Every structure is written in C-alpha cells, then in structure tokens.
Amino acid sequence: MAAEQTATGYIQHHLQNLAYGKLPAGYTRADGTVLTESTWTIAHSSQEAADMGFWAVHLDTLGWSIALGLLFCFLFARAAKKATVGVPSGFQSFVELVTEFIDKLVRETFPHTNRMVAPMALTIFVWVFLMNLMDLIPVDWLPMAAAKMAGNDHFFFKVVPTTDLNATLGMALAVFALMIFFSIKEKGIIGFVKELTLHPFHSGKWYVDIFLIPFNFLLEAVSLIAKPVSLGLRLFGNLYAGEMIFILIAIVFGVGALGFIGAALLQMGWAIFHILVITLQAFVFMVLTTVYMAMAHNREEEHEHDQ
Questions:
Q1: I want to staple 296 with a disulfide (CB 3.0 to 4.6 A). Which of 6, 13, 137, 183 is the partner?
Q2: pTM score
C-alpha cells in the first residue's frame, strides 16, 4: 500500500478518520459529482471530512471504542462468573491481579468513600489499554481489509481510537463532568464557589478578599480547565506520535530502503518499546482521574489544612 502512493498521501490517508456527516446542496465531491440536495454521507476525502464541520461523526473511532469496551465487559464478566475459591489460573489469575492492583492503588490515592471510583478506575485502565493496544497491529492490515470489503481503495479507516483527539478529549470531558458533579455534591454550590473564589489567596478579611476574588477565580478557572485539556492531550499526543512512527516505518518498508528484514526489525523494536508506552499512558490516565476524583471530594477544611 505504501508503494502505491506518495509518502505524503500515504500518511494523510492513514491519519484521516472514517467521517460521516452532512454536505450541503451544490457541493462538488472528490469524484466530481455535484449534490442536488443536502446529504448525510461518508467523506471520500479529507477535505470533505473538514467541510462536514463540527457534527461529523468518526465511525471508526466510535466503532472500535465501543467494540473494545464490550470486549472488556465480556472478558471480565466471564472471569467473574468462573471465579472459584481455589487458586486461580490462566486468565482468571490475570484478571484478579489487575483488579487487586487497581484496588490497592485507589485505596492509597482516594482516601474517601465512593463505591464508583474503583470500578471506574479499573474500567478506564483496561479500556484505554485495549484502545492503545490496537496501535501494535500493523498499520496496513485492517485498513486494507476494510477497503476491500467496501470496494474502495481510498476507504479511510483508523483502528486506534486514542489517536483521535475527539475520543481522548471526550473521555477527559467525561472525567471533568464527574469532577464538577462530585465537587458540588460534596461541598455544595456555596462551597464550590468559595473554592473557586477564595483560593489560593485568602486573608480572612472580607474587605480584602473581595478584591482578591477576580484573581482567585482566574487562577482557579485556568487550573480547573487545564485538567481535562492536559488529560486528553497527553494521551492523544503520545499515541499519535507512536502511530506516526509505525506509519513511517511502513513507508520505509514499502519503498524497500532497508528491505524486509530491516523493516521487520524496526517494527519489532518499536513495538516492544511501544508496549511500555501504551501501558504507561493507560496507567497515567487512570491515576490522574482518581486524583481528580479525590480533589473533588476534598472539603474546604481539608484544603485549608493542606495549605
């Protein structure tokens, strides 16, 4: 596949998602056809995907993320159903090892009572890991298979959901929404507003604090918004960079610069290192989520004590 395209075209093709959206009437498509009315359709080029605007849906990202989420639920539910009081073996042992590791970490990081946090941390870690793991599949295998099934050699198909900024920021915004929800639930509206306006500068004198409120709110708002943004961008950036390296190695293999053995060694070497990256990024996303939940549960007196 790499040999049939220019390097630039090959990279652009692999970085474009399978977008489904609405194109306006009179729009000239990539194949030269003109739409007579507004149409919901699959993009045939990166320009069409861009012209679909905000409401375009990345079908490949949604499909793979949902499928991998269901796979996680099936495997862990199956392990739980077959759990015994004896010494576990095989996959059951692995599931128990992961579960105990996450549970211990949550107990150390989250010193509050909330029965949702540990299952959420386990779900995030395994789900993100599975999505990251798709990056180890050779870059051409699944896209080529999808293109043949669709009967279109230029069919866009990305298989790593975490290389789509929409997916990583979507998960980060979900964490952010939970953080806001638990902050208000634990501290009340007044406590939440006080946290945003009376920290980090607080004199205890109202006639001084009233002038500090704008500065406190600006600092706290920036700090609050930075949490989901950094959480999503960190995961996206690391996996996107990893995918780019696999694509570049595939280009080298396609033009035969190093030959089959050299390219295979490069792929294998990077894949071994990338296993550490995908595991670490899943772990970091899970730990930061747990820390943010702990921060949301911290009451004002605890915050002041920490200061």
A1: 183
A2: 0.90
